[in-house]
Specification:
With 260 residues, this protein is an all-alpha fold. Helix content is 85%, strand content 0%. Helix 3 (70-89) packs antiparallel against helix 4, helix 6 runs antiparallel to helix 7 (166-186) and helix 8 packs antiparallel against helix 9 (214-231).
């Protein structure tokens, strides 16, 4: 009777709100892209940042009105990660860090279930990377490395599930590179080289999977140059240094030849 109708109405309302929240999350992605576009050309992105904040408030209000659910939480987390990442890139570190921290609180229960989706785990990995970046920015390298290692474990799982996916392989490589950067900032040159060498192996593997992709060539060149710069701090044989330099130069020549 009445209870059944009430429950049905509540479920229907949550479904409508979840659909609205998902639409707002997609809109947030576009706002962030617009803001980054204008910022890249030297224009203030404040107006779009304000729009992003307003959309975020709307989803919070929708969530408060009908109660939390996985679809609504998923949309909220996506928006928090997008807006938080934008604030971090625009230099509003504390504001961005708080948004990313809130996203992590929402995402962890979503991804704790055995049947958690790969998309949810990918958003969690991105949130962990952003949180690590924020901690690294203020000199908290220990926390930054912990966040990066947690993200790395998620990327490793995704790579194991999709071993022939070049993007998964490359993402895992850049996860190792991030850890290497933080270890270097801590003064652990040996640890940094170890992580950067593993990064090099993975981006080269990604390049073999997509040998004609210009981005793969750029990624390999970038990692090779990072590894070269770090190895120059050690007593590394000259042959190893020249091999890194040759790896970077070879890829960059191919990139230049391919671009108009």
């Amino acid at each position: 009777g009445t209870i059944g109708v009430s429950a049905w109405a509540g479920a229907r309302e949550r479904a409508v709100v979840a659909h609205s929240a998902a639409a707002l999350a997609a809109g947030m992605d576009q706002l962030v892209r617009d803001a980054e576009h204008w910022e890249r050309f030297g224009f203030a992105a404040g107006e779009r940042s304000a729009q992003a904040e307003q959309q975020l408030r709307t989803v919070r209000e929708l969530r408060a009105g009908v109660g939390a659910s996985a679809p609504i939480d998923r949309a909220l987390a996506r928006m928090l990660v997008a807006a938080g990442g934008l604030h971090l890139r625009l230099g509003a570190t504390e504001r961005g860090r708080l948004m990313v921290a809130e996203a992590l609180e929402v995402l962890r229960p979503l991804t704790a279930a055995p049947d958690a989706s790969a998309d949810d785990r990918a958003v969690l990995a991105l949130a962990l990377v952003l949180d690590g970046d924020a901690h690294g920015h203020v000199g908290d390298f220990t926390t930054a490395i912990a966040r990066f290692r947690e993200a790395l474990a998620l990327d490793a799982r995704r790579h194991a599930e999709r071993p022939d996916d070049a993007t998964c392989c490359s993402d895992l490589g850049f996860g190792h590179l991030r850890i290497g950067t933080m270890l270097l900032r801590q003064g652990d040159v040996e640890g940094a080289v170890r992580e950067q060498r593993r990064a090099m192996e993975l981006v080269e593997a990604a390049e073999r999977l997509e040998p004609e992709c210009i981005d793969r060539l750029r990624h390999t060149a970038d990692v090779a140059l990072e590894l070269l710069a770090t190895q120059m701090r050690q007593q590394v044989p000259r042959e190893e240094l020249l091999a890194c330099l040759d790896a970077a130069e070879t890829r960059l020549e191919r990139v230049c030849a391919a671009e108009p």
